[in-house]
């Protein structure tokens, strides 16, 4: 059995838990994405800002002195001082990298080199560097530079100018730590570039010098970067990676040597002693940092950094032998090693390994490996489980992790063994960075990343392990394997007669969701319901927003499903109820003069940014929502009738506040098929209709074959023609019981298993736009339904 070595004492663990109470019911394992701030840290920041008057540092000495104090604290954190390094505050590590790329003086024909396994921001440097001599080096290429006798083994390649090598101190995908001994070696002896040797500073027969730009954003978060021991010319960091707060603040640390090769043309406010408008004349300030910090510093964020340093030292105090960051480094490595070895032991019933890992070290030493474990899950037959499925399953278990390629295309390509043509093929198939298009022709486009921080405990790791065991090592895996090996099913399917091109079906229910993420208003029987240009009338035209104006959905509050709407056409009102509580009626129509038009942000799936024009429905309903949902600051917003949200492809079919399309259709027969394949669910669920509710469809049909909806090209209900917009990719929303608000692992897990990781269920529809338009048309459950295959 794998053992875990504890770095922290029980007292330290208890202290950490006390300051992170808000995540008691969640498992946070995306520390490579961002650290989390402690509650006390924010309280102290708030007190600091409330007790002081911090003005523009260009005019306020108190603020300027505080900024200088923070600069000193940062230098101390990295074990250096102002005689050796200068700090330039930036927006983040990416902005720091961009500054180096734009301002580095390559001389006549210097060269730029970057590591293949690098963050996208390092890759982007090649687009702005002022040299045409650009090359990409593998990890192995860079490691060759540590050899002391490499001059004898390398061909000579001379550049007259300055050369720059950019690489990450720790890979944010695999957690691999590049040996930092390479820094001094390259600075003194030059760079090996694919067998060619570029002369360095100490070779006096050449004017060329070699410089190091270290992307330390991932490394500095959980490791001690000792700038007294190692002296990169440029160090790029983001503070939210270390402290969680503040965001939008980073720094570029420049050595005196690095400063000597920086040439900046642009100047902004505060960077010059004098400038003239009508004459091309200006004089830069003497202080190097002031020359590069254009405009007013983010001085309130900078002031907040002090509490970040204090928090780390308070929760993970230094010892006689180790600094806080060194202890954190050992802690996260021990967790990663324990998690890696535990995962490595997992097998399917046929002996097939459950996990394919992506690392260089097998977690042998904290010197070369950080607290990151990246992997993909394998089916019993060795095929891949899509990472989108894992992300959704994790969400059901309240586990916050990261999937994809983590803005590290080079490491992703290398570990997944993708050729350049594979990447192009994936892009042509619709895959782009940060999407959930996880498997293309069975080939993964990314992976799953678990990353640890100082707040992570063994119980968190065990919870992730248990989730993986529960969901991916089971009896159903063996049964599926037997079906695949027998090959009886594929042969039998070839002999099934071709189905009729037009299949009869029945529309059993029409569902309106007046308020996004709340319960459905059901329309049955002969009731005719009006169709508008945007879809079913009153479908998703209201939404609840929080105090920040962001959409409040079931992903954040499952209790929203218990808010039941009723559209009363006689009184012309929308009526809401929550358990025993009834709201004040909300008018279905409001005159323009009565509205208070606002713009709010609409959150759709994982992509935020759609601006929605609407109007506030008043304080009374806002107070009612805040009360029943126990969340202060909630407001009810109605979308303006003339507000436009187009389809993502830019077509003119308009939608309200739906995620993807005007309509979502579910085949009840498909849900029944699924229900039979979920162990024990038929005994525990109240009815098939309860499961259907989870899919939150507008149109529910049945009496046709299961999944026949996936094969149709056209749909007609009554005299309304619909276009098929494609399948609906599912998330953890379908794991919320719409009767209780409780979360379960099903049916997402079974959908993913039955369809080889493709979490798609139901289809999106849009109404065909005819010359006469859909005005004054309606549908009912008594209308004839026709499914056309061609």
Describe the structure.
It is a single chain. The protein is of the alpha+beta class and 790 residues long. The chain has a seven-stranded mixed beta sheet, with helices on both faces. β18 and β19 form a beta hairpin. The two termini are 58 Å apart. The relative contact order is 0.09.
Strand neighbour order, sheet with most strands:
2-11-10-9-6-3-4
CATH architecture of the largest domain: 3-Layer(aba) Sandwich
Indicate the percent of residues in helices.
25-40%
User: What is the CATH first-level class name of the largest domain?
Assistant: Alpha Beta
**Given the structure, what is the number of helices?**
25
The percent range for strand residues is 15-25%
What is the third-level CATH name, the topology of the largest domain? Aspartate Aminotransferase, domain 2
Mean pLDDT: 84
Relevant CATH superfamily of the largest domain: Type I PLP-dependent aspartate aminotransferase-like (Major domain)
Q: How many strands in all?
A: 39
State the shape. globular
The helix-and-strand class reads: alpha+beta
* Distance linking N and C termini: 58 Å
* Main beta sheet: 7 strands, mixed
Number of domains: 5
What is the rounded Rg?
Answer: 30 Å
Low-confidence spans: pLDDT under 50, at least 5 residues?
A: 199-207, 475-503, 602-609
Helix and strand layout, with pairings?
Elements: H1 10-18, E1 27-28, H2 39-51, H3 61-77, E2 85-90, H4 93-103, E3 111-115, H5 120-123, E4 133-137, H6 139-143, H7 150-153, E5 155-157, E6 162-168, H8 181-189, E7 191-193, E8 196-198, E9 209-215, H9 217-222, E10 234-238, H10 240-243, E11 250-255, H11 256-259, E12 272-275, E13 282-284, H12 288-292, H13 299-315, H14 324-344, E14 355-357, E15 372-377, H15 387-396, E16 399-400, E17 402-404, H16 409-416, H17 420-428, E18 439-440, E19 443-444, E20 447-451, H18 458-472, H19 475-486, H20 488-494, E21 502-512, E22 521-523, E23 529-532, E24 535-536, E25 542-545, E26 563-568, E27 573-578, E28 581-582, E29 586-587, E30 597-604, E31 607-616, H21 619-628, E32 635-639, E33 663-667, H22 668-676, H23 681-684, H24 688-694, E34 699-702, E35 714-717, E36 720-729, H25 748-754, E37 760-767, E38 777-779, E39 785-788
Parallel strand pairs: 1-16, 3-4, 3-6, 5-8, 6-9, 9-10, 33-34
Antiparallel strand pairs: 2-11, 7-8, 10-11, 12-13, 14-15, 15-20, 17-20, 18-19, 21-22, 21-34, 21-39, 23-24, 23-38, 25-32, 26-27, 27-28, 27-29, 30-31, 31-32, 33-37, 35-36, 35-39, 36-37
Helix pairs in contact: 2-13, 3-13, 14-18, 22-24
